[in-house]
Amino acid sequence: MIRYNHLNKFEIFLIVIAIYPGSFDPITLGHLDIIERGSRLFGIVIVAVLRNPNKTPLFTVQQRLEQISLSTQHLPNVEVDSFDGLTVGYAKMRGAQALLRGLRAISDFEVELQMAHTNKTLSTQIETVFLATSNEYSFLSSSVVREVARFGGSVDHLVPSHVALDIYQCYAQNHPVSNPIKTEVI
Ligand code: PNS
Question: Where are the domains of the chain?
Answer without folding.
Answer: 2-139
